[in-house]
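User: Hey, quick favor. My workstation is busy. Could you predict this chain's structure for me?
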Amino acid sequence: MARARRDIDGILLLDKPQGLSSTQALGRGKYLLQAKKAGHTGALDPRATGLLPLCFGQATKVSGWLLDADKRYLAEARLGVETDSADLDGTVIREARVPELDDATLARLQEQFSGTLAQVPPMFSALKQDGQRLYELARKGIEVERAPREVRIHELRIEQTAPDRLRLEVHCSKGTYIRSLVADIGRALGCGAAVDSLRRVGHGAFDTRRMVALDALEALCEARGPGAIEALLLPPEAALAHWPSVTLDGRASAALRHGNAAAADAVTAASPGQGAGPLDEHGWPLVRVFDPEGKFLAVAARDPQGRILPRRLFVAAA
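Assistant: No problem, here it is.
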């Protein structure tokens, strides 16, 4: 008999193991917690490991902002080989001699592949074309033309660890494919390159410090039950911790819970956060909103008059 699903709210920072898709990892986390509602925040390749925030219940409301967040990766690349998937799981389509590299060459590559780039997504990706996943077409031996997409590499560090090996540290925008980046670097060197290992180490406001391995979660659940895993969950607002915030007085907090705007003079405190939050459809900055007791109420826009206009509520109307 299946166990009853539970209302669980929060974010679990999973260290995704190699060999599982993000959807499979989410399904495992949802099963362990017996959660009713869950979603992940951007796919990792089955070959990739590392930080995969899993959102449950109310926390699924921040999934969109996590999807849009910057990411950080560590990658190991093999030089002298090209594959159809741009990693070593794929079929080799070309091999070439690896040139001798020096510090000046690595520095030139770092500069060339930093900033705004036009990147062609790999065929082995979850993007859809005419309603079909690209990787489904690729597995049938079908290759289709893909339009370049603009991505941004905020920071790139490249180190040669062996004559045919590079180690990359990448801080990038959403939508960046590290496999495509590595393949492009290989082409620039004239010898080709493919990803050997890939690990995500940063996702928006999150890093690896609170990350938990799947096998550790399974052991914890077996020993102490789903409640032990629930204690590891971060609150939904943790995903937005770097955003500016405001605190409202009691009356405005009660009104906001019902979807009503708060006047500028209802703001009793404000924090600039660690950086500007995103903008809403009007171009107004989004902020986190708290009540006088410090309870997270909503994501809201702050208009030019200072009013607080709710965009996403995180508490039920009382």
